Here is the input.
Amino acid sequence: MLRLMYVSTATAEMNDAEIPRILESATRNNTASDIRGALMFNGVNFAQILEGETDKVEALMETLKADPRHMGIVIIGKVEVDDYRFDDWTMRLIEGLNFDPLFQAMV
Here is the structure.
């Protein structure tokens, strides 16, 4: 399994009203792919952790790279793991401006 974290910058197409849509879509798609994760958005930047089978996480990243709501994706880390850290989260929004909780989850 793979745990991957990335950060990106919101584009002009992104606004706060998109967040519920992102979460709804991510929950539906991640459930089907057995991917777990967490998302933070501070109004300017996204930070997200994804966990799941390596090929599925990497395929999802290719989809995310094409999403026009953000740009400048930077992979912060990729870690092979044996089990989920976010076992019961198909996708969860973590509120706040500080991305430290996600950075700490990569350790």
About this structure: The chain has one domain: 2-105.
